[in-house]
Every structure is written in structure tokens, then in C-alpha cells.
Amino acid sequence: MTSSARSTSHWLLHYGLLAFYVAFALFPLYWLLKVSVTPNDLLYSEGIRLWPSRSSLAHYTFVLAHSDFPLFFKNSVIVSGSTAVLVTLIAALSGYAMSRFDFRGKMWLVGLMLITQMFPLVMLVAPIFKLFSPLGLTNSLTGLVIVYTAFNVPFATFLMQSFFDGIPKDLEEAAMIDGASRFRAFRQIILPLTLPGVAATLGFVFTAAWSELLFALMLVSKADASTFPVGLLGFVSKFSVDFGQMMAAGVLALIPACLFFLLIQRYLVQGLTAGAVKG
Amino acid sequence: MSTMPLYEEAAPRRPAPLRRLALGLEPYLYIAPSVILIATIMLVPLIVGLSYAFRDMQLINPFSGGFIGLEHFRALWTDAAFWLSMKNTLVWTFASVALQFAFGLVLALLLNSPFPGRGIVQALVFLPWAVPTFLSGLNWAWLFNPVVGPLPHWMAALGILPAPENILSDPSVAIWGPIIANVWWGIPFFAITLLAALQSIPQDIYEAASIDGAGAWRRFTDITLPFLAPTIAIAVLLRTVWIANFADLIIVMTNGGPADQTQIVSSYIFTQAFRRLDFGYASAIAMVLLVLLLAYSFVIILLRQSLLRR
């Protein structure tokens, strides 16, 4: 009796805390959505109502039909997607090396990668602009992909390393005794076990590239190579305080990030390693 | 041994120097793409950027570019706005990291054991992580705006604020606006990282400890925390440094105002570089920030090494 009462209160606390987290996480996004469907004439008079008395999709129609947002959207998908794939490939290799090999200069590599996490990236804006300009990498999506890939590799390497560290060395050692090369053992045995890590890395990098504003602003001045944040900022300054349209564009910017996130989130915490060791 | 003619078995025994060379080179092949990319896109521009700190470097002035020695650093020493931004950076970084970590750890522990509906709850609470940072900033600035946002009215009703006013325009509390936005956005980072680490702890250890009579709290302090320690150390190190450099939310929400009360060092660098186009002065400030962050990280690395050795 007491034990079941204790377990009931335990679960009440558990779900209560989780409900708080869910409400905190969702409320701002709910508000974004609410403002985006509020007609302009109600925006200020019904400012703090939880849902407007009348809703409309007029802001969305305007943004989709009379703005460059569809183009910005496409540019951002290309840049973020390419960056995520490139970074994950490169970081899987270097993260594996950091996890499994003891090599000369390893401490230097760790130091180098930590330093890149430390210096304010704003320092790099002018030098990178000067480096990229003669190469034709300004006003180009390729230029952005190169910059974002370099910026994200160090963190992704540490992330992948921590996932590789969680996988016993016996697994690929067994495969290598059976005659596989290390690279083949890495690809066919270790990498599939690190799928949660790969998914986490893809997600982190995609989100980071999708949000980046500073270098996108500096390196791209033409609309046809603008990413979504640059487009939204231009929109804010052009239409000053049209918050309804701004938030409608904001909701659109959320869609791919959220879709990608929902796709990968179930891989984030799958206990594949535990299963592999036990089985 | 000679009864085992398999090539694969025999190969590692061959003393061929070429093979030893290939084995020695192997780790470098794995790290080569990362190293080349980091060196050309980050290291070279960093060194060029550092040289700007000692030069009169203004983007709009074609006659600038000459070396001026320590002139920028002398100006920095007497710059009150810089010292204020140093203080604000400490408040901003410490409050953001501490709150993100505390809420993230609790969330990770809540999500660690299976319960009905875990998948959907997990998807919902991690969602802020997918929200682009500049959009989070706009979103929270909107929520704090008493004309259209609900928060000032709620806070006034609860007695936290004397009247429904925008905390972002009150110099004494404005910095908490970006901090709250930052905590909201950053909790999932810690929760995901810690949850992944929690899931890699072998369950047998818990089972054995339970059999030996260890209670929930004992299992947490004696098994969970030691296993999490290296992950916590590296996550906190990377996040602290990252947040100290993270100016987006402040730029979007307050632009450093009112009266520089929310200006952190990195947003001050941004202001110098992009408003005044003074890359020389901006680089000098950045160099000071870099030295401070390096010193901090050195301490954390030592801490992590000692934790790993235990």
C-alpha cells in the first residue's frame, strides 16, 4: 500500500515536472504562431489574448506570393544540408582517430580544435572576406558551405569522439582479427553502431548552419544567394514593424529545422551500444 | 603457426617497413580533412585578424592599415563601456550556463527511464533547440513587449513587476531578457548530450548495485555522476566559451542597450566592427577576450584530465 502510494506520487512529480518543461518549451512557439495568424487590425487591440477572435492566413499569403522568401528558403536548405553532410563525414573520421589512435601531435590537435571554439568568430569576418573575394566565393552558396563546414568540424569531432568512446574497442579488434582492414571495420561495424551520434551531429550542424547570420550577412550581398536569416533581417528593415508578416516568415523558417529535428530526434538516445555489447 | 595459411592472419606479423609506415600514417589520414579545413578557413584568417589589433584598420578608410603598435590597447584600458561589457559577460555567461546545465540535467534524468509517452515528450521539449537563434531572440523580445506580449502583464499580476513594463528597456534587469531566451534555447543541448551519456552507462552496474542494496540517490552519486563527469566537463567547457562569444540574442533583443547595460564583450566587438567599421579596435577587444577564454579553458582541461584519470 505505502509502496504503491509512493510510486503514484513519484509518477505525479515526474509527469508534473515534464509538463512544466513542455509548457516552457512550447509557449514561445505557440505565441509566434498566434501572432502570425492574427489580422493586423486585431494585433494590438487583442495583444494578450491567447487566441485572436478572428484568424487569417493573409500574412502567409503575402510572404509566399509577394516576397523572395521561397528563394531564401531554398538557399538555406542547400547550404545547411550540404554543410551537415560534409561536417558529419569529416568529423566521423577525425572523431574516430581521436577515440582510437594514440598518435604524435594528438594533444596539439585537441588544442587546435579547442582554440577554434574559443576565439570570437567575428574576428574572422574581414580576413575571410578578403580571402574569399578574389576566389569568387563571396555571393556564393559554396563559399558559405565552406565557412560553415570549417566552423562546425571541431565541435562535431568532439561529439563524435564521445560517441566512439562509448563503443568497446573489442568490436573492431575482433573484426580486424577476422581479416577486415581498420577502415572497413570502422565503416561496417563501428559507424552503424554510432547512428545516434551521427544523427545528433547531423542535427546540430544543420541547425547551426540554418541559424547563422553574421557571415551570411557579410559574405552575401545579393538576394539570389541570400539565406533565410539574411532575408528575414532585410524584411524586418524593409517593412519595419509588420510583426504579423515577420512572424509568418519566422514560422516558415521553423518548418525545415523542425521537420529535420523530428526525423532525427528518435535516434538521439537509442541505446544501440548497450545492445551491441550485450548481444 | 605454419598450419594457418590465411593471408589475413599472417599479414600483421610481416615486419615489412612499408606496412609499419602505413600503420603509423593511418591516424593522420583520418584527421587530414579536418586539419586542412581548420587551418585554411580558421587559423590563417585568425592570424591575419590578430595583426589587425595592432593596425589602424578601418574598412571605409582606404588610407588606413598602418601599424600603430599598442594604441588600441591603451584606448581600451580607459574605455568605460569595455569594462562594463566585461562585467556583463560574466553575469551573462555564468547565469546562462548554470541555468541551462541545471535544467538540462534534470530533464535528461527525467527522460532517462522509459515511461508511456516518452517519445512525444522528448520531441516537444527538445524543440527549442531547432529554433534558429535570431528567431528565438525576436520571439522572446516580442513576448517581453507589453503592447503585444503577455509576459509583462503576467509578471505584474504576480507582483514581480510593479507595472506591466518591458524589462528589456529597464537598465537594471534588461540582461535577464536575453538570458531567459538563451536558457530556453540552450536547455536541449545539455539534455541531449547528458541523455546520450546516461544511455551509454551499462545497465548491469545499476542492476548489481540494486542487488547490493544501493538506493536511488546512492546509485546517482556513485554510478551516474562519475560516469557523466567527463561529458559534463567537456559540455560545460565548450558551452561556456560558446556562450561568452554568443552575441546574436543580445544584438537581436536589445542591441546592447539600454545604456550599454546588456552589452557583452562579443556584442561590443560586433558593434565596433559593423557599426563603426573599425576592425582594428574590434580585433584588439577580441584579442583580450581570446586570452581570457584560453586561460579559462586551460583550467577546465586540467580538471577533465584529472577526472578521467580517476
Automatic annotation (TrEMBL), chain A:
It comes from the Bacteria. It is a multi-pass membrane protein. The lineage of its organism: Bacteria, Pseudomonadati, Pseudomonadota, Alphaproteobacteria, Hyphomicrobiales. Belongs to the binding-protein-dependent transport system permease family. This is Carbohydrate ABC transporter permease. Its main location: membrane. One of its GO terms (cellular component) is plasma membrane. The keyword Phosphoprotein does not apply. PANTHER family: INNER MEMBRANE ABC TRANSPORTER PERMEASE PROTEIN YCJP, MALTOSE TRANSPORT SYSTEM PERMEASE-RELATED. Keywords: Cell membrane, Membrane, Transmembrane, Transmembrane helix, Transport. The chain crosses the membrane at residues 12-33, 77-96, 108-129, 141-160, 189-210, 243-264. It is found in: Cell membrane.
Automatic annotation (TrEMBL), chain B:
Keywords: Cell membrane, Membrane, Transmembrane, Transmembrane helix, Transport. Gene3D superfamilies: MetI-like. The chain crosses the membrane at residues 28-52, 89-111, 123-144, 175-198, 227-247, 279-303. Residues 86-300 form the ABC transmembrane type-1 domain. It is found in: Cell membrane. It comes from the Bacteria. InterPro entries: MetI-like (IPR000515), MetI-like_sf (IPR035906). One of its GO terms (biological process) is transmembrane transport. Belongs to the binding-protein-dependent transport system permease family. This is Sugar ABC transporter permease.
